[in-house]
């Protein structure tokens, strides 16, 4: 549909924008024309923020979370519990868990989940480095915080086996009712798990939220 | 939901991306993390294409379409019919009409439609400059190619009145059946117009497509 842009600069920007996931050529054109209508400073700020971010963000050599230094601010924060590490699939999950303010320990970002169908094997993930951290940092607890999917469960089990001989407590996130959801619409597997893992009602008062 | 980014560079990029229309903070974070995973050159190319586009694209002083020079390539193209001007709402409509390859004349971009409810009056649009072009360039035909909405029809009528005393033919895009749509699902107004404006069947053979 969109052929004659009348400007190679516009065409170039549309081409680059449409490489982003979920952004087709029509949306890219809409975004580019929006930027042309707005103040020049806005487009320059956007462009520079993208370049600066990509050029200066690296990965923490300890937990593999994004970082602007060799070691990320979370790993460097001495107020955090240095002996409890939460294992997550990716950087986004770190942000999501941080937003709950319920985890005061460190993280370990795997960079994916074991998925033979997608060609992702344990060696593609940061699992060996997790085992090394458990030994070197004498970690007391590993919290497996992967998605409750086949890939997540496979990865959970693989890590659990790898850590079986080490003196570390391996826990995983509770599976149960979603807060705000009706019992009636909760699937049977989840409901079953929530019965198996029921907790003392009196304990729910003592948890800080 | 998204609070602790662990990186001011990421936060900055997410803030700038989420200023774009239709992109919320969650999508902005998804796009930013995508760029972090991909090659650095890709993000730099995107950032630079946005900055270059915004810095170097201006508006054609004759037709008000986007341009990289004072006069746009369409206005400068001597092979195009210099006496027929298609009046459109915005830059996107120029691209859409160009893609049909059915208009060999020039354009005039109004920059919007008359809409009292949105506070857009005729003086906010490039209508006076259109009247001036009709006089100065001795235009023979003005094709009104505005959307068939209340605002489009109001603007059509306003321009028609403004040009009433000038020796120029004022035409508008045909309204009728959408190609590929079933007759049954065509609204009555459109169907009525398509009956009023019916064309000779034999003429449809002679039109190049």
- The count of helical stretches of chain A stands at 9
> Which blocks of ≥5 consecutive residues of chain A have pLDDT under 50?
none
Query: What general outline of chain A do the C-alpha atoms trace?
Result: globular
Q: End-to-end distance of chain A, in Å?
A: 52 Å
What's the count of strands of chain A? 6
Helical residue percent of chain A? Answer: 40-55%
Tell me which oligomeric state these chains represent: homodimer
Outline the biggest β-sheet of chain A. 4 strands, parallel
Largest interface: A-B, 61 and 61 residues
User: How much is the average pLDDT of chain A?
Assistant: 90
Helix and strand run of chain A: HHHEEHEHEHEHEHH
Find the structural class of chain A using helix and strand composition. Answer: alpha/beta
Sheet with most strands: strand arrangement of chain A: 4-3-5-6
Strand content of chain A: 5-15%
